[in-house]
Amino acid sequence: MKYDYHIIVIGAGSAGLTVASGATGLGAKVALLENHKMGGDCLNYGCIPSKTFLRTAHLAKDITNSAEFALNAKLGEVNLKKVMQRVKDVIAEIEPHDSKERFEGLGVDVFLGESQIIDKHTVQIDERKLTGKKIVIATGSTGRIPPIPGLENVNYVTNKTIFDLEDLPEHLVIIGGGPIGLELGQGFRHLGSKVTIIDQNDHLFPKDDPEVWDVMKKVFADDKIDLCLQCKVKSINETNNLKSVIVELDGKEKTISGDALLVSAGRIPNTKGLNLEKLGVKTDKRGYIITSNKMQTSIKNIFAAGDVTGPFQFTHMAGYQAGKVVPNTILGFGGKTSYTMVPWTTYTKPEVAHVGYTQPWAEQLGIYKESMIFQLEEIDRAKADNDRYGFLKLILGKKGKIIGATLVGDKAGEMIPLASLAIAKKMKASAFASIIFSYPTQAEIFQRVSFEYLKRSFKDWMKSLIKKIFL
Ligand SMILES: Cc1cc2nc3c(=O)[nH]c(=O)nc-3n(C[C@H](O)[C@H](O)[C@H](O)COP(=O)(O)OP(=O)(O)OC[C@H]3O[C@@H](n4cnc5c(N)ncnc54)[C@H](O)[C@@H]3O)c2cc1C
């Protein structure tokens, strides 16, 4: 059978755009379908707006704390409309890179409209039917709205609408203490809002090494962010613009009221209209598409990539998976995913970055041997920068090999690739000792941890031997 396209890609976010440009670059005829905005969540409602907003918020924190830098600057009134205009300006600056025009220029046929998969080779977009040898589902995810009684009658914001706020909330109440709630919550706090974060867990950062929470709870306490942990939301109501969240804590009910409410309670996959069940595309119990390590679904010619597949919902992961989809759809071989070296960063201040195995994960797999921790406050540059909170933890497997790392610090996201490289190259904890680091840099923390490791490995009998022979 002759098809209109080699590949039909559904969804023009991080994953879909990478597949479309990569496959076209290899000579495939590609259709790219999008039902909302080119660029997906990352550009429009995720990474870019949040990080742009956070830059302003973290600057505000430095201004507020200017006395610590021997200045007496004062944060004037925050015009949130202007802050959010800057967010929109940065999105507009990046937009052309992900635009319909640019992709058409690359040779991709871009279709904007509502799409539906009709059968395993046919996709309908509005009135048009397109056929493809392969279909790639890259439809992403959306914020989960939990079934809380009363929520449907309340004016709340999500990551899709929070960047449209024009007035700084006096009190922002947040349901969900995951990365989105924490980053945005801390950002609003730095701009001057009172912030309360409600979460049902007894601690936050549950996917990170346990030492992260020990540090971050002090950070949030310093920031005067109210945390309502182990709080179960019972109901919500709104009167005169005041949103009241009724929670249960230790068997007692308590009301938390604010003039703004952010719901950031996890994600759900975008699979509406894809007819997955009818097609026989298998999903897990949360509705995420199950794929092989070649990103192939249970239907041979249908592939999936990005948030819609579930694990590790990051832009870099969408790009990584898409990079496997391209050769696998075109050549039938060329790449298998491995999730043993995935980095992630929560862009709080300080940032929390991780790559590879955490200690609990490595222990569970029986590959954990030991770990090394070095505190950031012992690094000269951190003292100069007044970055007091943070540490580097290396997770070590057999023979001192680095299999994971957690780094907390203002520049953690920028420095964690050093650990990625060490893991990829199967380097030992001592590896950074022989590298010359510029002084003073916070990255020296890697070298200091290597020195500690060498010191620890240097046994008393070795010292005695040296004494006997050389001294
Ligand atoms: C507030 C926030 C902050 C974030 N910050 C970061 C960060 O700092 N770093 C990081 O790595 N990740 C971050 N993420 C996660 C990141 O945005 C996602 O992991 C990434 O966008 C996933 O890419 P994707 O291509 O799978 O999905 P998306 O980017 O969501 O793209 C999917 C596209 O498919 C379209 N679509 C859906 N259904 C259909 C259909 N039926 N037909 C046609 N088109 C359809 C959607 O409109 C969308 O454009 C953040 C997310 C949020 C919400």
Largest sheet, in brief, is: 7 strands, mixed
Q: Tally of extended strands?
A: 21
The percent range for helix content is 25-40%
Roughly how many Å apart are the termini?
Answer: 83 Å
- Weakly predicted, low-confidence segments: none
Kindly report the average pLDDT value: 97
* Ions and ligands: flavin-adenine dinucleotide
Structure, explained:
Helices cover 33% and strands 24% of the residues. The protein is α/β, with parallel strands linked by helices. The strands form five sheets. Strands 1, 2, 3, 4, 5, 6 and 16 form a seven-stranded mixed beta sheet that branches. A five-stranded antiparallel beta sheet has the order 17-18-21-20-19. A four-stranded parallel beta sheet has the order 10-9-8-14, covered by helices on one side. α1 packs parallel to α9, α3 packs across α4 and α3 runs parallel beside α6. Flavin-adenine dinucleotide binds next to α1, β2, α2, α3 and α9.
